[in-house]
Design brief:
Number of strands of chain A: 17
Oligomer: heterodimer
Radius of gyration of chain B: 23 Å
Shape of chain A: globular
CATH superfamily of chain A: FAD/NAD(P)-binding domain
Structural class of chain B: mainly alpha
Largest sheet of chain A: 6 strands, antiparallel
Helix content of chain B: 55-70%
Number of helices of chain A: 11
CATH topology of chain A: FAD/NAD(P)-binding domain
Number of helices of chain B: 8
Number of strands of chain B: 0
Structural class of chain A: alpha/beta
CATH class of chain A: Alpha Beta
Largest sheet of chain B: none
Distance between the termini of chain A: 33 Å
Number of domains of chain A: 1
Helix content of chain A: 10-25%
Distance between the termini of chain B: 67 Å
């Protein structure tokens, strides 16, 4: 099915970056159509309204597409990866499921090669993105407090920080005793009503979505404004390939609608915002005589340099109840004591600590992110009672460095519900990352004990921790060593743009969404400027 | 044994679940509370149903050499039998324990006993006392700890 509709820009993917770029372009008067393979999430459908809400975390509301298996998901062959990719396919994308921990990259994160002699520098810097960080913060709504010495000064946060509560004050005491850096996290979760959205009521499981809209997901932040500005959004529209015109420019995409009919959407420019796995998958599926190895892939780098942020987890058990079921699950405190390179530690670059809330009842039994299940049998009751509501988990978020062998390819046999080849992910942990995580686990144990933990357990590598999908269509000045330029434009196809985590040259040691969205806004402004 | 067959083994299954999570004096609820959940999971998912069926079949096979049926055994004998099954059929047994914990720790009676409010977490949420603002003076006094680039 084809139409004569030919908007200025086709955006593929309605998640964190697709929403931001669609809004920015639409408010500049540019015609935008977005194709999203998922649907709108009905606020009444979230599991929080059901008594058995926690059961859904490992079934239909799992962050793992291979577990969730919804019709709008595509399977991922992850057999050759030590980390499972996580994502959500819906309007809002993975911001539906994220914990909304919202730190920015730091200035040094854009100059890794210059400062530390590894990986590559970005073609843009912190100063370039700073106004977009601020703009994005206003659009998403950030709870936090200024003055963090780990960053250049920031503009005022939109609402006060997430309350620390007993758990946060307890671990803060540990950081204080060790004289380490810590700060109440920037979180894209409102603690006061803001911009027509309600404040958080501290129900807890943000990772299952936010049914009241206190947590920023782009279906409730960017999209209403983008649609009001004239953008159009087609849901359950799964793109198979991007098409090229005779002039070698992208001229649209072929997709399947919710009834499975093949459709064609024309456009004058195409923006890919399908995440660090979905975007290379789509490019590799878009082969043509001009691009036999995949669209925009003359560098051979599409799909390569996959970075995840390997996570290690340390969990302390305390003597007293901590109220850890109260408040946003992933957001209370960040520490960047070990963020910048110190080669005496045995590795280059560094990591953040993210302190998460306590374990809910089922997670307490099954071990949560550490995975140490409470024993069954007569020892069960005592062991469970010693753990429930008495734990603090510290996540070690390590900076992954780009490596060519960590990559996304097309699986030769696995397909999605429309018969489109699925991605195959190969990823192994580098020696540098291993040393970094080991250092982080040891230091996390120190801070937990300094805070009063009587025992500490750890998970050296969280398998179900592939929240952050980055690097697979990297940005750079040299077309031989990068896929897009400093404004997200393909070196090979000048009206094809990429705005998701694929473009990240390096991944820093913090959650990337704030930076991904800032980059998307930066790319959008380049498109607007070129259009005149 | 089919998944329907699993439902026919309710008494055995209940005894197994109670052995996995036994009642105690101050926490009288037992793993048997998870029975409906385990059966529902077996019914909803062919994969889970097959795994749970394997676990129960392994338990049935193990009880053949015992003095009596599993529910009549002493708690020590039950645990010893289950530990043998855990070693011989680790994957199936792991699924049985996981689904038992899932069902037990999502049951309203258990949630109440843990001191939480059973039921949906929305719209009620949780109250957090605002408390004193964090003292960030020491951290801020260190000055910038980021590298300028």
């Amino acid at each position: 099915m084809a139409t004569d509709d030919r908007p200025d820009v086709l955006v593929i993917g309605a998640g964190a970056s697709g929403a931001a770029v669609a809004w920015r372009l639409a408010t500049a008067g540019i015609g935008v159509v977005c194709l999203e393979q998922g649907d709108w999430v009905d606020a009444r459908a979230y599991p929080h309204w059901q008594a058995d809400w926690e059961l859904h975390r490992h079934t239909d509301w799992s962050a793992e597409p291979n577990v969730r298996r919804l019709p709008e998901d595509y399977p991922v062959n992850e057999q050759a990866s030590v980390i499972s990719p996580l994502m959500y396919n819906a309007v809002g994308g993975s911001t539906i499921h994220w914990s909304a921990h919202f730190p920015r990259f730091r200035p040094s994160d854009f100059r890794v090669k210059s400062l530390d002699g590894v990986a590559d520098d970005w073609p843009i810097d912190y100063a370039t993105l700073e106004p977009y960080f601020d703009l994005n913060d206003r659009m998403m709504g950030v709870a936090g407090i200024t003055g963090d010495p780990a960053y250049p000064p920031k503009s005022p946060r939109q609402t006060p920080p997430i309350p620390l509560d007993t758990l946060g004050h307890t671990i803060a005491g540990g950081f204080e005793r060790l004289h380490w850096h810590w700060w109440p996290s920037d979180s894209a979760i409102l603690t006061r009503d803001y911009d027509g959205r309600r404040a958080c009521v501290n129900c807890g499981p943000c990772d299952l979505g936010c049914p009241i809209g206190a947590k920023a997901s782009t279906d409730i932040t960017y999209w209403p404004k983008a649609l009001a500005a004239g953008a159009r959004l087609l849901t359950r529209a799964r793109v198979r390939e991007i098409t090229l015109g005779p002039d070698g420019l992208a001229d649209g995409a072929i997709y399947y609608d919710r009834e499975g009919r093949e459709c064609r959407q024309k456009a004058r420019a195409v923006v890919l915002a399908a995440n660090g796995i979905g975007t290379p998958r789509l490019l590799l599926n878009s082969r043509s005589p001009r691009f036999p190895d995949g669209l925009a892939n003359r560098s051979g780098l599409v799909g390569r340099n996959l970075m995840f942020h390997p996570y290690a987890m340390a969990r302390g058990v305390f003597e007293r109840p901590l109220g850890g079921h109260r408040g946003p699950i992933g957001c209370s405190i960040i520490s960047q004591e070990f963020y910048e390179t110190d080669l005496a530690r045995g590795f280059v670059r560094g990591y953040s600590f993210q302190v998460a809330r306590g374990l809910s009842p089922i997670a307490s039994a099954n071990g949560g992110s550490v995975g140490d299940r409470v024993p069954w049998g007569r020892a069960h009751r005592r062991a469970y009672d010693a753990r429930f509501d008495r734990t603090i988990t510290v996540a070690v978020i390590g900076e992954d460095l780009p490596e060519l062998h960590n990559r996304v390819e097309l699986d030769p046999s696995l397909t999605d519900g429309n018969g489109i080849p699925s991605p195959r992910v190969s990823y192994r942990l580098s020696e540098n990352s291993r040393r970094m995580l080991d250092h982080g686990i040891a230091r996390a144990g120190e801070v937990l004990r300094a805070a009063g933990a009587r025992e500490v357990a750890s998970n050296p590598l969280l398998r179900a921790g592939g929240w952050h999908l980055m690097g697979t269509a990297r940005m750079g000045r040299d077309r031989a060593t990068s896929v897009v330029d400093a404004e997200g434009r393909s070196h090979d196809v000048p009206n094809l743009y990429i705005v998701d985590g694929s473009v990240m040259v390096t991944c820093a040691g913090v959650n990337p969404t704030s930076t991904i969205q800032a980059v998307a806004l930066h790319v959008a402004d380049g498109m607007i400027r070129r259009r005149g | 044994m089919t998944r329907a067959g699993l439902a026919e083994k309710r008494d055995l299954l209940a005894a197994v679940l109670e052995t996995l999570v036994p009642p105690s004096e101050d926490f009288p609820e037992s793993g048997a509370l998870a029975l409906a959940h385990v059966l529902a999971i077996a019914d909803a998912s062919a994969e889970a149903g097959a795994m749970l069926t394997r676990a129960i079949e392994a338990i049935e096979a193990a009880q053949a050499g015992q003095a009596g049926p599993f529910p009549t055994l002493s708690i020590t004998e039950r645990e010893e039998l289950l530990r043998r099954v855990e070693r011989s059929s680790p994957e199936a047994f792991d699924a049985l324990v996981r689904h038992t914990y899932d069902g037990f720790y999502s049951h309203p009676a258990t949630i109440t006993r843990l001191g939480l409010d059973p039921g949906p977490v929305q719209p009620r949420g949780h109250r957090i006392e605002s408390g004193a603002p964090p003292d960030l003076g020491r951290v801020a006094a260190r000055g910038p700890i980021f590298r300028r680039a």
